[in-house]
Backbone:
């Protein structure tokens, strides 16, 4: 009986691990797709210099900060003014109204 | 050697005059050269096809899989750019030079330098910088085969795009400096703008 219980526990853990890995992979793909659709990569990149800061730089800037998600949420949904080459322009918003999708992109950026 | 061959030809055709033989040899030479040239051109054209490029799993499972559904693969107008449009020059001499350089990639295939996903990721940055370097050296020549700067109408561009293009023109930066990672995944590391390459 005991053996059966541990076998089921191991199987459960393995399944949970596989499921979580699958969910994570889908989230990354969804985040990248939404960012592409929203044109984020026109001004930002993973680690290279463009008009906007690289995602890695943003992740490092907000690492360990409690207000990271809230700050980025506001930045990606309210078209704030940003300075590019000394001129002010409106930052684009993510092309979605879905809260979970926006938070998924924020999680993606912060995990770079 | 040529005179011996000519004598043998005359002995074989005793009724032919020198002129007839000469014209015959010339026509045969032209036909053979034409066939060889056509075969060479067809061979080169074949190596420029999408199916040839994704004939190996290294390209098909990595860069080609990433390319699918990007703006150069699928778009509202249906005009596509295949691998060779961006990676192989159209001009005959430059194309031949690129093809010769590409033959060294066969060695990479034999030795399996990027034959797994992990190996490909390990080499992704190095492979990308090779392409970026070539594009920077040629002022993104292959981009400009389709995207003609003089045919771009700034009035039809967004305000942001217009400003960026004006800045690029003033600073002498080229297409790939900003438009990288659009057909394939962006590698982790400094981008083309940060590569120190002078034309």
Residues:
């Amino acid at each position: 009986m005991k053996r059966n219980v541990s076998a089921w526990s191991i199987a459960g853990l393995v399944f949970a691990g596989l499921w979580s890995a699958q969910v994570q992979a889908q989230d990354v793909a969804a985040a990248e797709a939404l960012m592409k659709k929203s044109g984020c990569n026109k001004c930002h990149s993973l680690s290279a210099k463009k008009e906007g800061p690289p995602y890695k730089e943003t992740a490092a800037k907000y690492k360990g900060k409690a207000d990271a998600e809230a700050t980025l949420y506001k930045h990606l949904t309210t078209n704030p003014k940003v300075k590019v080459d000394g001129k002010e322009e409106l930052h684009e918003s993510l092309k979605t109204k879905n809260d979970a999708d926006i938070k998924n992109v924020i999680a993606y950026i912060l995990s770079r | 050697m040529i005179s011996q061959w000519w004598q043998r030809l005359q002995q074989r055709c005793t009724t032919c005059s020198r002129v007839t033989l000469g014209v015959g040899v010339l026509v045969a030479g032209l036909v053979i050269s034409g066939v060889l040239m056509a075969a060479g051109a067809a061979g080169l054209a074949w190596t420029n096809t999408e199916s040839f490029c994704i004939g190996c799993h290294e390209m098909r499972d990595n860069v080609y899989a990433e390319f699918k559904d990007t703006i150069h693969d699928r778009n509202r107008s249906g005009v596509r750019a295949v691998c060779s449009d961006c990676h192989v020059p159209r001009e005959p001499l430059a194309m031949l030079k690129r093809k010769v350089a590409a033959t060294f990639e066969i060695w990479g295939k034999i030795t399996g330098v990027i034959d797994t996903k992990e190996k490909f990721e390990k080499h992704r940055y190095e492979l990308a910088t090779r392409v970026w370097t070539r594009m920077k050296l040629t002022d993104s020549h292959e981009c400009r085969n389709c995207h003609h700067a003089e045919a771009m109408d700034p009035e039809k561009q967004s305000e942001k795009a217009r400003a960026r293009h004006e800045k690029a023109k003033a600073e002498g930066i080229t297409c790939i400096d900003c438009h990288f990672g659009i057909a394939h995944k962006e590698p982790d590391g400094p981008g083309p703008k940060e590569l120190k390459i002078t034309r």
